[in-house]
Amino acid sequence: MTSSNKRLVVGRELERQVLDTAIASGEPELVAIYGRRRVGKTFLVRQHLAGDLCFELTGMFGVTLAQQLRNFSDAVGSSFGAGIRPAPPRDWIDAFAMLGAMLERLPKRKRKRVVFLDELPWLASRRSGFVSAFEHFWNSWASKRSDLMVVVCGSAASWMLENLLRARGGLHNRVTRHLRLAPFTLEETRAYLISRRVELEDHQVLELYMALGGVPHYLKEMARGESPAQCIDRLCFAKDGMLRHEFKNVYASLFDGAERHEQVVRALATRQRGLTRTELLAATKLPTGGWTSDVLEELEASGFIMRTAQFGLAKKDVVYRLSDEHSLFHLRWIERHRGRADGTWLRIRGSPAWRAWSGYSFEGICLKHIDALRWSLGIGSVQTVESTWRHDSRGDSDSGAQIDLVIDRKDGCMNLCEMKFVDERFVVDKTYAQTLIDKRTTFRRETRTKKTLFTTLLTSHGVADNKHRQAVVDASVTMDALFERRNRA
Questions:
Q1: Domain covering 3-180, topology
Q2: pTM of the model
Q3: CATH number for the domain whose boundaries are 369-483
Q4: Which listed residue, 75, 101, 245, 336, has the most CB atoms within 10 A of its CB?
Q5: Average pLDDT for residues 252-256, to the nearest whole number?
Q6: Which of 331, 241, 247 has its CA nearest to residue 38?
Q7: How far apart are the C-alpha atoms of 428 and 467, rounded to whole Å?
Q8: 48: nearest Cα among 2, 111, 6, 10
């Protein structure tokens, strides 16, 4: 692979290292890559392994088996037959036999060749026989070829987990390496935009991220010389905006019975602090049966929701929260305002509803960049456990308290973190200072912790220096911390 191809892939350092290790190993490799739609799985494989790809097949959504097999024969013709398409195989057993025969004819070489099967769940439609045929292909032939690497991709994370990584049949323990490709971090988003000659201030990158998330396919629509607000208006609110109907399309293409997944996401979008499983079932009226657990697992595996522990409570009391920025943005804004006159987002921005949404979105982004925050606080090398905390009111003398993020440290300390997103430096006034004191006092009383407690503010533009800040705030981190590299060794 040429160095120029490597430069085309922004970020994804760990993923590229895994692919490089696989291609250089002396063993046959079956690599599974999964992640939500539009996140860049296909681009990563095509660009990073460009010089090694010898065959590529992409599944088609919602077509017949005959159409999939014709697509296969087209791919064989493109890869091995100088554009001459062979007759479509009768079934997937014949298809993989044909593929093996074609690969056998290729001249020997030292470096592995790569077979790339993209959108595997679409290829493996019900009663297609694909999975059993692929099992046979791998177990009877490909697993004996140390000069071969098979890469399989899929956007339906739940299908990939069930049929490959947790397979009980012929593919049990056959996957040699797997990667979950997540949306870009803020640092990767900034680097990606720069690679496209779009240079924005960090707070503008953050504003764009709040609406689009770290999905490369969405971010590439950001035009040079355009403000994030203009881009959001054009993509999300204009009559022909590319993302006006993306919410429905994404869930429908990823999940069977997607209306149940939507129910969960819609319920979580209304509750800033998140919901426990019990609260979520009550809000959605979903049954307590096994398939509700499947829905939650599928949404989590695909990166749409996340679980956060509650400090001092059991594992079963975790809080679910909506972690996909664009889903939240769609439900809060696009559904209610799309198709209106130009400038919709510019008019909305700054309203009370906008401030509530931006605060929730900023909090979620902070929770997804915990590693970066830990390094910024100088505790990157300290073992920590992160959670949220809530104490419900017991009456007039006890108003209750909630802490956005508790970082429980092995060095005998805890950071009690509050997230605040504002357009300027955050001002701690007398009232808010007392709120912070009350939260810390209540936390110590209710948890009975003996650890040192540090009141910590995570803000977009920093905290104004005044007597109240000096009295109650022990540490302050700005949004710049979110753009730092995570996992610095």
A1: Rossmann fold (3.40.50)
A2: 0.90
A3: 3.40.1350.10
A4: 75
A5: 86
A6: 247
A7: 9
A8: 6
